[in-house]
Write a structure and sequence with these properties.
Radius of gyration: 19 Å
Number of domains: 1
Number of helices: 11
Helix content: 40-55%
Order of helices and strands: HEEHHEHHEEEEHHHEEHHEEH
Distance between the termini: 10 Å
Strand content: 5-15%
Strand order of the largest sheet: 3-2-1-4-9-6-10
CATH class: Alpha Beta
Number of strands: 11
CATH topology: Spore Coat Polysaccharide Biosynthesis Protein SpsA, Chain A
Length: 289
């Protein structure tokens, strides 16, 4: 089973956080429901949205058994005074990122911090070279037939896109043209996956959370049945920030993303050529597993 193989490989690097000759690194693996447990000296599972779990259990979306699994196997994003766990279902990964920023000492004050999801992880081979780099990023995803802007609007709609642009230009007007340049590209960084040196991670948090809190002031925008408008925006802005770091000549490395669960493609929202392209990409990713 590929998940067991990934876990086994990461456990081979447990010595990193015990040996003074190697850099200490902690990577949060985000969970909102029970799944295969990625937990090692480096990989730390975190339960996102703890503050809303009771409401979710009421509507049958998550059982008491599931909640117990999360409590027993994960740290919580809601165990400190200024937690933003309550807005997790709208903002996604960043409730865990916020926990890490505000509770960094609880992670052991590591030299490197990373963020994964339980369905998307970086190939652990990067750990062999970690101390030679400031930043580890996922390989850029090539959209081939459309730009990042076009892809965003296709999946999430014009209203959410305009909210992203309006808030960004209000908070960081000096970066307006840089963001537009990034959104006009046909490849970029997705999935909110990264490993950063501590100082870079803290700079990232100082940059992105002012944006997050402005987005939360806006009315919620539904995308289908879900209200994840801010999460969609944050994924693209995290990608932009990583791209910006790469452009200033930081010493960075791009690594393969391992997809541990099937990607679901809805052909109704894609034209024929784009659907074919995505199927090929998913097939290629699966062949590497």
């Amino acid at each position: 089973m590929i998940k067991n193989e990934i876990l086994k490989k990461y456990k081979e690097y447990d010595f990193f956080n015990k040996d003074k000759k190697t850099p200490q690194v902690k990577i949060l693996v985000s969970y909102i429901k029970p799944s295969f447990l990625f937990k090692t000296e480096i990989l730390t599972p975190i339960h996102l949205g703890c503050a809303v779990e009771k409401e979710i259990s009421k509507d049958g979306a998550i059982s008491e058994e599931d909640i117990l699994w999360l409590h027993n196997n994960c740290i919580s994003d809601d165990d400190f005074k200024d937690s933003i766990s309550l807005v997790n279902r709208r903002v996604g990964f960043l409730t865990g990122t916020y926990w890490a920023w505000k509770n960094y000492d609880k992670l052991g004050n590591p030299e490197y911090f990373g963020s994964f999801g339980y369905r998307r992880l970086l190939n652990p081979e990067f750990l062999q070279k970690l101390q030679d780099f400031d930043l580890i990023l996922p390989k850029q995803r090539n959209l081939n037939l459309e730009t990042i802007k076009e892809q965003f609007i296709r999946y999430h709609g014009e209203e959410i896109y305009q909210n992203m642009i309006n808030v960004f230009e209000t908070v960081y007007p000096q970066e307006k043209s840089d963001l537009q340049d990034y959104l006009s590209r046909k490849k970029g960084y997705f999935d909110e996956i990264y490993i950063m040196k501590k100082n870079i991670f803290f700079d990232f948090c100082s940059w992105i959370f002012p944006l997050l809190f402005e987005f939360l002031k806006l009315p919620e925008v539904k995308n289908g049945k879900e209200i994840r408008d801010v999460a969609f925006i944050m994924e693209r802005l995290t990608g932009y920030y990583c791209y910006k770091l790469a452009q200033i000549k930081l010493n960075y490395l791009e690594e393969d993303v391992i997809v541990t669960e099937k990607m679901v493609i809805n052909p109704k929202v894609l034209d024929k050529n784009l659907f074919t392209t995505l199927k090929r990409r998913v097939k290629f990713e699966a062949s590497e597993l």
